[in-house]
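Researcher: Let's do a round of design. I'm pasting the structure tokens now; please hold your answer until I've finished.
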């Protein structure tokens, strides 16, 4: 039986304790979502958007909630900040119930301790307010400053920490780019010094080049201020490298929860398998021949018994019937990574059997998801520029192991270095020729 299905007595208070309860491994539980249901509409028009969702978030971690559009991710996030009311279940913060009817004093403490960064940076900011007022609004409402100078100092410090300038404070949101507006949204949340931040797809509306900057900014705040994140997203290639643990949600139900690498190495539920197989491979030829795994919910037979979210070991929770759980546990006990990506080489250079298609799994052909260290760092360009021969060798090596970004950086740096070296040699020869003449 999963710990997520355990019942707990209603725990209400007007203040939060200094620390939350500890789990069996001694980890502090900051937020606990217990068997929550969320519905919209009434009577015959009622729609159950979230059904029996449970998970814990530990202090200082990034817990990501992933799933396709309409799966209920944002609905859960809005329930945590008390925007969406619950039809059932409860949400505890540091062991204190924050869902349902609570006192005004506790409601203010929830707002003070739990902030949200929204998906659309344009729609979440008031276009008629200056950046100074937008960031200061929480400080005004909770009077978190001693004087006007103290408030101004806090706002200027925060605007600097998110990579903007003090002169930006007098401007309006429409004068900024999408990435800058999202930085303002992050500053508005962080100036409150929250313990938990619900980040609702904070990078999905941004350009690819800006996404890494915003993610790095959020990780910086996590390191410096010990902030805990509930990170809502649908892009697993991003989620993998920023999350400590991941929860997968499908049509309002949690189907799998595990640590980041555990989930990617052992995607046991078929829906998780389908999400991972949809991650693009940074190689056009391989991506073209990739076999996309599509999840079919009809493969489950829940007519005889109700499925449950069960811990199969390794802190890995999977949703299924008893028979399915036994199968998942048997797969995990083998301790052999599950092959979630298949490349179908048909009529290509890799094909030796002309009578049919040849299937090769990711591990068999050394095909991987985008590597962690394939960053295309400027350092590779710089070193290749000054050492072009070594740069070309490095580019060749990176190309062989499918580190495409590093390969491109080394190649560009080496070519630029060789051209520069060639120009210097030509100028030097011309100078010698002029000196002789």
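Researcher: That's everything. Go ahead.
Model: Designed sequence:
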């Amino acid at each position: 039986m999963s710990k997520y299905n355990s019942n707990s007595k209603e725990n209400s208070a007007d203040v939060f304790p200094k620390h939350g309860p500890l789990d069996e491994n001694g980890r502090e539980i900051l937020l606990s979502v217990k068997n929550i249901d969320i519905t919209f509409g009434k009577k015959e028009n009622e729609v159950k958007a979230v059904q029996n969702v449970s998970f814990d978030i530990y202090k200082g971690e990034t817990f990501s909630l992933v799933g396709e559009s309409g799966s209920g991710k944002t609905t859960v996030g809005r329930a945590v900040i008390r925007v969406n009311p619950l039809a059932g279940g409860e949400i505890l913060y540091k062991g204190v119930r924050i869902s349902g009817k609570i006192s005004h004093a506790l409601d203010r403490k929830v707002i003070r301790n739990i902030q949200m960064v929204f998906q659309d940076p344009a729609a979440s900011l008031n276009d008629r307010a200056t950046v100074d007022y937008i960031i200061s609004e929480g400080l005004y409402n909770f009077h978190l400053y001693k004087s006007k100078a103290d408030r101004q100092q806090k706002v200027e410090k925060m605007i600097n920490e998110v990579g903007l300038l003090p002169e930006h404070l007098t401007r309006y949101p429409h004068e900024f780019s999408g990435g800058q507006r999202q930085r303002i949204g992050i500053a508005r949340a962080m100036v409150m010094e929250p313990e938990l931040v619900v980040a609702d797809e904070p990078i999905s509306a941004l350009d690819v080049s800006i996404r890494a900057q915003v993610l790095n900014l959020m990780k910086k705040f996590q390191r410096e201020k010990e902030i805990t994140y509930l990170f809502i997203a649908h892009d697993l290639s991003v989620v993998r490298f920023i999350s400590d643990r991941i929860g997968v949600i499908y049509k309002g139900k949690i189907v799998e929860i595990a640590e980041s690498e555990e989930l990617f190495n052992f995607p046991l539920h078929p829906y998780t398998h389908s999400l991972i197989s949809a991650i693009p491979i940074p190689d056009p030829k391989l991506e073209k021949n990739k076999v996309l795994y599509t999840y079919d919910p009809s493969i489950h037979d829940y007519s005889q018994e109700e499925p449950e979210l069960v811990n199969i070991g390794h802190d890995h929770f999977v949703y299924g019937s008893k028979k399915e759980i036994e199968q998942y546990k048997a797969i995990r006990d083998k301790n052999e990574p599950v092959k979630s990506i298949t490349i179908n080489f048909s009529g290509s250079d890799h094909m030796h059997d002309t009578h049919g298609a040849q299937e090769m799994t990711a591990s068999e052909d050394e095909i991987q998801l985008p590597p962690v260290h394939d960053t295309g760092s400027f350092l590779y360009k710089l070193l290749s520029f000054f050492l072009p021969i070594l740069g070309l060798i490095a580019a060749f090596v990176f190309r062989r192991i499918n580190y495409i970004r590093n390969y491109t950086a080394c190649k560009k740096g080496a070519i630029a270095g060789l051209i520069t070296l060639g120009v210097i040699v030509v100028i030097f020869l011309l100078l010698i020729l002029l000196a002789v003449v």
